[in-house]
Amino acid sequence: QKRYSNTDDGNKNWFYFIAERLYNTAHGFWLFTLNNLIYKYLF
What we know:
- This protein has 1 helix and no strands.
- It has one helix at residues 10-42.
């Protein structure tokens, strides 16, 4: 499943792809850490 086509602004699409990947990774890591802290202090 390819979300970004190879058009004139392929570079811009690539930038957004990288930014989205970084955001998703950071978001997942944050949720993971938050869950660990919650379980550590509640239970």
